[in-house]
Amino acid sequence: MVQKLPWWNGAVIYQLIVRSYADGNGDGIGDLQGLASRLPYLRWLGVEAIWLTPIYPSPLQDGGYDITDFKAIHPDLGDLSAFHRVLTAAHGQGMKVVMDLVMNHTSTLHPWFQRARWAPQGSPERDIYVWSDDPHRYADAPVLFRHFESSNWEWDEVAGQYYLHRFLRHQPDLNYDNPLVQEAMLDVVDFWIERGVDGFRLDAVPFLYEAEGTRCEGLPETHAFLKRLRDRVDSHGRDVLLLGEAIQPLDEIAPYLMTDELHGAFNFALTAHLFAAIASGAVEGLRNCLSEAQEAVHGCRWALPLRNHDELWLGDGHLVPEDVIQTIRAGLHQGQGHWLNWGINRRLAPLLNGDSGSNRVLHALLYSLPGMPCLYYGDELGMGDWPGLRDRDPNRTPMAWTPARNGGFSTAPDPLLVLPPITSPGYDYRVVNVEVQKQLPASLLNWHRRMLTCRRLLPALRHGDFELLHCTHPSVISYVRCDGGMTVLVAANLSAAGASLRLDLSRWRGERTREVLWGCEYPPASDSWFVYLPAHGFSWWLIGEVEDVEGVEDVRDAEDVRQPS
Ligand code: NOJ
Predict the structure, then answer these.
(1) How would CATH label the architecture of 111-164?
(2) Confidence band, pLDDT 50/70/90 cuts, at residue 561
(3) Contact 272, 314 (CB under 8 A)
């Protein structure tokens, strides 16, 4: 009997910020009504799930990751009924909805914190958070937001004690030693599952517990709580994704996945290696990272982002070695002053100096590697950023829909807009937008759509086994994905110079090879199969006759690229 895979296995996830995506009521702020109206676009693009960055009530001192009520919607964005409408509409169009869930901390304005600071020391109410008389406790825990904070502790006048905050001082850490906290968060998870959500992106998941003499990351107690969380989610009896955000190296993340805790986790080490490969034109580090990831966790459980709403997190040498960080810093286009905390505060397109070839080859890898590719809103267009805005806002500006005023994001007067739409040279919304790119068959947007169509039709790319092939060219990475009778061969050239290479395809000797995107026939597979890849070129090839796979023969005619939604 064929085992039914959970929906997230190999699913393409599109990350968006509701307040920056589409404004439905004309007040200058994106909202759920606006998002609902854009779901047909996402369906057209071919994503399978949308991940919403936090939509809860919040004073927005950290883009909504500072929550004041875990069971409500921020009034700027709508209400629970509007959320229900988005959820049902997304489901009706075959897409899943994943919510951000911040379990590690709240806002200081959360009623729990306000009660805690007034409650007597040692009372259960006070113990909802982590307090200390000594700001040097847990001194081995690094300060993560080092551009904003110099300590993980903040003095609270009312409480007469310091409280722990691994992120901003407005975000006190919850105390998971307190059973009330554990129950409250499990209850939040029940709440949203009962409302129909399909998964959670678990923010900052390694930091739930603290212990002296450690970095306070991924402690055994954290794993034990996550197991409880998983049991609770499983008790609902349907597939609800638990996707962990952990900025640690692979061997520290694997334990979340090897046991019955999380279903998936972001692979930020791979993200860094992808950027290092494009920055240097050398793929050895990328190859090693891929082998390590597959060895650590076999299959498609890694979520693969290029960019997201944060800086491109490279860490302090803990996530990837210092030389990888230096390669990225030296080779990527950063401009002045884009280093924030432990990473580069730029969107994908400007980081790649606007080069659409680099965007394509990186996504060609993302869409063909084992895992869940994550596409950040606007990167399908090559949208730019607005350097100079505060914190990570440069990467969070309004989506560009049309060449009309405000990029079609909102009808509100400019001063009311949540953030300014991009008008910088090369990225102006009058040129870089959905409407224009839909009309241009060779646009980046139509390319992404075509790639996603092909991926959908090729189960080997979605959940097939993965094997790296030997390739002597230092700039080319090559691998196969195999599922049942289907084999897809991938080769990608990460350098800005053309590359000719020979691959040993003796295992498939004599079999037919066809390039997937355009259906071109290549010479039959052989032990010295020659191929030329232009600068930043890549190809996906089908090997063999591929029978019984519905739709595969139609891949190249899969769509009229100009069809509107
Ligand atoms: C990780 C989120 O991605 C980031 O945006 C946020 O600031 C921190 N967690 C704190 O919640």
Answers:
(1) Alpha-Beta Complex (3.90)
(2) very low
(3) yes
379 is catalytic: no
| CATH 3.20.20.80 domain span(s) along the chain | 13-103+179-455
CA distance 200 to 491: 33
Which tokens hold the place of 315? 């860490």
User: Phi-psi category of 257—alpha, beta or left, where left has phi over 0 and alpha has psi -120 to 50?
Assistant: alpha
| Closest protein CA for atom 4 of ligand 1 | 310
What was the pLDDT predicted at 131?
Answer: 98
Architecture of domain 13-103+179-455: Alpha-Beta Barrel (3.20)
CA pair distance 223, 209, nearest whole angstrom: 10
Residue 408 has pLDDT above 70, yes or no: yes
Q: What are phi and psi for residue 485, nearest 5 degrees?
A: -85, 5
Query: Which bin fits 60, alpha (ψ -120 to 50), beta or left (φ > 0)?
Result: left
Residue of 203, 261, 310, 385 with catalytic role: 203
How far apart CA 397 and CA 395 sit, in angstroms, is: 6
**Residue 16 pLDDT:** 98
Is the model's pLDDT at 547 over the cut of 80?
no
Compute the distance from residue 109 Cα to the ligand 1 centre, in Å: 17
Q: How far is CA 99 from CA 50, 243, 299, 521, in A?
A: 8, 10, 24, 43
Handedness of CA 558, 561, 563, 565 (dihedral sign): positive
Kindly give the distance from the C-alpha atom of residue 424 to the centroid of ligand 1, in angstroms, as a whole number: 27
CA dist 62 → 151, 167, 340, 557 (Å): 17, 9, 14, 45
CA of 408 to the centre of ligand 1 (A): 28
In the chain, which residues fall in CATH 3.90.400.10? 111-164
Which of 127, 217, 245, 310 is labelled catalytic? 245
Provide the mean pLDDT of the chain: 95
Residue 245 annotated in active site: yes
Q: In what order do the strands lie in the sheet with 161-164?
A: 131-132, 161-164, 153-156
Prediction pTM value? 0.96
CATH topology of domain 464-543: Immunoglobulin-like (2.60.40)
